[in-house]
Amino acid sequence: MVPSQFNDKIQQARVSDSRTFEEQCEKPVAMDALCSKKNKRKSRKIAGPDCPLKENSDSRSSTPVNDRSEKGDRRKHTATVAPSISSSQESCSEQPSKRRAAKVDPAVETEEQYSTRIEIKIKLPDELKPWLVDDWDYIVLQRKWLNLPARVTVDQIIDDYKKYKLNSRGNNAKKEVTIGTLSNGVKEYFNIMLSSQLLYKFERPQYNQILQKHPDTPMCQIYGAIHLLRLFVKIGAALAYTTLDERSVQSLTVFFNEFGKYLVKNSASLFNRDDYVLSESQRIAT
């Protein structure tokens, strides 16, 4: 059901947004899941540079007869300056259009492309949203960290879900390949999006420590269930930047819906408030 180029499109899902998870969420991320915000973009008008071409008018009430030669020289000078002024005005009128053309960046999404891009909706089960609200409270307000590596990592959760699906009835070889491909794809999405999309600002020092201690370890083998829930909230916008066909997008949507139900069923073992520990700054203060 999923084309073979799915894995090739994973790298295209990196969204060029350097803001932290906290900067993107003025309110808890669960509220972001409940209330979709409308993105509004304002077109900017590029004003051309001012061209203050002022002629010096040295008017005199009377001109002596003996200054006629000086007057003639001044007329000649005016005649020679006039073409240069007109040419400067022409170059000035052309300058705004040149500057506007120089500001066009082919890598930046145009307004037309943005309006036609459809965000894919990934539904987060209502039973899991309170965990994200509590997560926001522990990290942002109480300034705590999650204990890492997690008790149950994202890699383990996805592998357990894959085994669960493969052992269910009604599977065939094609479905098994699809489940395996989608499971590996979600892991890659998590690894790609974690640093720029799934972390609060307060968690970044911990993330840097993890990189130093485990430089060659995929992040899906370090982080756990809470960060996986954050992926549910953010991945819909990321998928909109890929070139997956409609059938592949539908398969991903079904996968996440079924995966969400699995997380609800196993929430007692996956989510625990004891997973939050004192941050480094809190340990130093105590």
Secondary-structure blueprint:
Blueprint: H1 6-9, H2 21-24, H3 29-34, H4 68-103, H5 111-116, H6 129-141, E1 144-146, H7 154-166, H8 173-197, H9 204-213, H10 225-239, H11 246-265, H12 267-270, E2 276-278, H13 280-285
Antiparallel strand pairs: 1-2
Helix pairs in contact: 7-8, 8-10
**Binned strand content:** under 5%
- Please state the CA-atom Rg, rounded to the nearest Å: 31 Å
User: How much helicity do the residues have?
Assistant: 55-70%
Mean pLDDT: 73
The stretches of 5 or more residues where confidence is low (pLDDT under 50) are 1-7, 12-18, 33-68, 76-92
How far apart are the first and last residues' alpha carbons, in Å? Answer: 55 Å
According to DSSP, the number of beta strands is 2
- What about the largest sheet? 2 strands, antiparallel
Number of distinct helices: 13
The strands making up the biggest β-sheet line up spatially as 1-2
* Order of secondary-structure elements: HHHHHHEHHHHHHEH
Shape: globular
Strand pairing plus helix content: what structural class?
mainly alpha
3D architecture notes:
This protein is globular. The longest helix has 36 residues. The chain is mostly helical. It contains 13 helices and two strands. Strands 1-2 form a two-stranded antiparallel sheet. It is 57% helix and 2% strand.
List keywords for this structure.
286 residues, 2% strand, disordered N terminus, mainly alpha, two-stranded antiparallel ribbon
Task: Summarize, please.
The protein has 286 residues and is mainly α.
